[in-house]
Automatic annotation (TrEMBL):
Coiled coil: 27-75
PANTHER family found in the cross-reference section: NB-ARC DOMAIN-CONTAINING PROTEIN-RELATED (PTHR33463), RPP4C3 (PTHR33463:SF198)
Keywords on record: Coiled coil, Plant defense
Protein name: Uncharacterized protein
Length: 162
């Protein structure tokens, strides 16, 4: 009988304590949550820069960029712009931390960190571009002009003949 009462009391305590402690954990881990978000945002920036460089190189090679890569770059830019905004974390002219604001910002940081991590994982592309007929035709035209010896129309291709 005592075991049943203890079991019931433990369940009741679990359901009463968890909702009280959860918000306190956000306030307590405020700095850690913001630091984690900062780290994840930096990782995302690095991945975005790498994907942008690959996309630029593909464009220079007359390739089109995959639509999912363009969408990912757009979503990444939106997230990074939102992240640049900061909140005022002081109350009473900076004399004390504002617990309500810390709770809100910490909770947002955890949520954003999850979104940023998800976006980071989506940024692993097998390929980012594809050759198009227009790009292949342009390449073939350049080769044909070069092979015919009329390379004056090619930018940067100045061959001096003896």
């Amino acid at each position: 009988m005592v075991e049943i009462a203890v079991s019931i009391a433990a369940k009741v305590a679990e359901y009463l304590v968890a909702p009280i402690v959860r918000p306190l954990i956000y306030v307590w881990n405020y700095k850690r949550n913001l630091k984690n978000l900062e780290t994840e945002v930096q990782r995302l920036k690095d991945r975005r820069d790498a994907v942008k460089h690959m996309a630029d190189e593909a464009r220079r090679n007359a390739e089109d960029i995959e639509e999912n890569v363009n969408n990912w770059l757009y979503e990444t830019s939106k997230i990074l712009i939102e992240e640049n905004e900061s909140a005022n974390m002081k109350c009473f002219k900076g004399l004390c931390p504002n617990p309500k604001k810390r709770y809100q910002e910490s909770k947002k940081a955890v949520k954003k960190a999850k979104a940023v991590t998800g976006l980071y994982e989506e940024g692993k592309f097998d390929r980012i571009s594809y050759k198009t007929d227009a790009g292949a035709k342009q390449y073939q035209a350049h080769i044909q002009v070069f092979m015919n010896g009329n390379n004056n129309n090619l930018p940067g291709a100045h061959i001096v003949r003896p």
